[in-house]
Amino acid sequence: MNLSPERERLLLLTLAGIQFAHIVDFMVMMPLGPILMRELAVGTHEFGLLVSAYTFTAAVSGVLVATFVDRFERKRLMMVMIGLFGLATLFCALAPGFTSLLIARGTAGAFGGVLGGMVQTMVGDLIPFQRRGRASGTIMAAFSVATVAGVPASLYLANHFGWRFPFLFIATVACGLLLLAWRVLPVLRGHLATDGERPHPLAAMAAALRDGNHLRALTFMALLVFASFMVIPFITIFIVGNVRVAQADIPLIYLCGGVASFFSSRWIGRLADRHGKVRVYRFVAAGSILPLLLVTHLGPAPLAVVLACTTLFFVLVPGRMVPAMAIVTSAAQPALRGTFLAINAAVLQFASGLAAVVGGLVIATDAAGGIVRYNWTGYLATAITLLGIFAVGRIRMKI
With 60 as the cut, is the pLDDT of residue 285 above it? Predict the structure, then answer.
């Protein structure tokens, strides 16, 4: 489908909006950590479960969706997932305690996590390879907007009205996105088989997993995400408990990091299109090792020093995803792109959930309320990042 530049821009902004909603829904749990641990009377292990519940159910639903995603028209399936995601997030706001919130978070993950894979599928279906790095940069800018606007706004609501209000905010955003998707997203049927050639539901998944290049791409993405989520879920708890930054100043961390990454993600996308996606990935990933180690080794420090370290973290650690997603989207067989990217979304969610659980087991809370052994997660993340730099060279892009 050939789109005019204006229509392509509007399409990408709509997809970025969908990405924004489920990223905020996932991300908001991390800065809410100190509040939730106090209000629900839970420790770091239970908090890690709240974070990973979203990702584990997203992984399971991603596998299930992979069995039928290429059998349905893209727009209709996307709208169903947005609606169910909004409803599940509303249930999070209504949860009376830890157990019910854990179940609600898992339900939200079952629908929200699938949206990321569907967004990337539509990018692969509609955007030519030559502009796919820039398109991935636009989609990744949703992460920046989530950190600049979504997370600080959610924290403001939590600090002034209680932890339930951020989830009400996200559910309201999902309702608006449902209307926007109905008006903007095109109907996509080109991937559908005719009735006479419709395969078994598991055939596409089996075909996708038989492809060695697909498996190498999935391994690469699992390494990338695992390295990030050993560290990310516990940043706020560590900075409040160990670095002694006030809870009221936490939105500044997300504001500064989000503003910087809003510009850097699109810049990284343009560099990937111009100089090669693998080369740019390796450069950004190597640079990300510095903030991974800095953030996990911080001690009591002035707010300006903390902001410098965390802003560099937001630019380089999530910035790796811009060329990485362009690489992985282009590694898929076109006929199996939806199935492969649904599997990829499941792998990403499972890897991030497992990393959060492992990180929660590695670190602990001392008698003074501080976090111990957080530096260990930085060392592990560095080692896994180096493995990913090697693994990306083994992927072949099929356009």
Answer: yes
Cβ atoms of 126 and 11 within 8 Å: the answer is yes
* Closest among 79, 48, 16, 20 to 233, alpha carbons compared: 48
Q: What is the pLDDT of residues 164-207, one digit of tens each?
A: 899 998 999 999 999 988 888 877 665 555 555 555 657 777 88
CA distances from 66 to 103, 105, 209, 332, 346 (A): 23, 21, 11, 14, 9
Is 296 inside any structural domain?
yes
Separation of alpha carbons 66 and 114, rounded Å: 10
Q: How far apart, in whole angstroms, are the C-alpha atoms of residue 325 and residue 319? A: 10
Domain count of the fold of the chain: 1
The one-letter amino acid code at 209 reads L
Per-residue model confidence (pLDDT) at position 326 = 85
- End-to-end CA distance of the chain: give it in Å, rounded: 16
CATH of the domain at 227: 1.20.1250.20
**Which ranges of 211-336 does DSSP label H, i.e. alpha helix?**
212-229, 235-241, 250-275, 277-296, 303-316, 321-331
Within a 13 Å sphere around the CA of 195, how many CA atoms are in the beta-carbon half? 0
What distance in Å separates the CA atoms of residue 356 and residue 19, rounded to the nearest whole number?
A: 21
Token pair recorded at residue 206: 């089996």
Q: Is residue 190 part of a domain?
A: no
- Residue 390 CB neighbour total at 10 angstroms: 11
d(CA 105, CA 338) in angstroms, rounded, equals: 25
Range of the domain at 352: 5-185+200-394
In Å, what is the CA distance from 228 to each residue of 129, 317, 357, 379?
27, 7, 13, 12
pTM attached to this predicted model: 0.71
- Assigned domain for 194 exists: no
Per DSSP (E only), the strands in the chain are 364-365, 371-372
**Beta carbons of 55 and 104 less than 8 angstroms apart:** no
The answer to whether 140 and 269 are in contact (CB under 8 A) is yes
